[in-house]
Write a structure and sequence with these properties.
The protein has 335 residues and is an alpha/beta fold. Helix content is 48%, strand content 13%. Strands 1, 4, 5, 6, 7, 8, 9 and 10 form an eight-stranded parallel sheet that branches. It has a two-stranded parallel ribbon with strand order 2-3. It comes from Pedobacter steynii.
Length: 335
Amino acid sequence: MAIRIDQIKNMKSNVTIVMYHYVRDLANSRYPEIKGLDLPCFVNQIEYLNKHYNVITTEELIHSIDTGESLPPKSALLTFDDGYIDHYTNVFPILSNYGIQGSFYIPVKAIKEHVVLDVNKIHFILASTPDKLMIVKDLEHLLEKYRTTYQLYPFDHYYDMLAKASRYDSKEVIFIKRLLQVELIEELRLKIVEELFVKYVGMEEHVFAKELYMTEDQLIHMQNSGMHIGSHGFNHYWWNHLNEKDLASELDLSMSFLHDIGVDMKNWTACYPYGSFDEQAVRMLSSRGCKMAVTTQVDVAEPIEKMRFLLPRLDTNDLPKEKNSTINDWYKKAI
């Protein structure tokens, strides 16, 4: 059941940080099965938040953490992960119309090198067929194919360990995601994901990437128009799985990109890929002057010093998502 955000206890100093990913007209898209927020529902949420909340900027949140000054009552902050073209073509015009700032967290490699992140390949593999058991069967075959070379356990070992339903996904989907995102070694994950991407999606990767992600020019336009652009790493790796050298590279490459597109590096922020933080990640963000970082933990955030790099968020699925004709008509006029 979705959380009624008007029933959440919002102390004066708290802030509801909302997390978005895909925002698109799902029914008329090439991949209507993608796990995203339907565009009319997004418009409805923005109108709801604008009416019932004080939508603040990232800079206002940083100021509150730095100084201890209270935020307005029922403050909210909107965040958008992964640099999708949806955020420029769909989200940006709506936020601009309302005078609302969004904070957009960018995985640099996808933007600069026109590659599709593994996590997104997995999303579109899943969205390409309603029969998730077909993908599971493919994985059973592929694990057997590579079993000797990579000294793998039998298929049932991985399935029994990983196939656990979550808040939003079936056990089959969780198995596919966890196996291909983290359980297998990177070299094998890349091979298997690529084979499945070719089978189920069938587009050249650089072409697909240019359709999926924003460009640097679009990011600069958003940055110059008052949106906040933050770090989501370079390769979108799990930060809590990296050694110090590799995490330093992830952060430094990402920071260099932010600087190049005009971000005020005195107020740069981060979003942990997959919510993957640990003590090392927090320490390295702090040493590089990062002002705050958001997680995927589900809660209302308290903007205090000890939570600076551990700010929780609500998923868009936790907010109202009802469509209505007034909102749909407004959207058509607004853009």
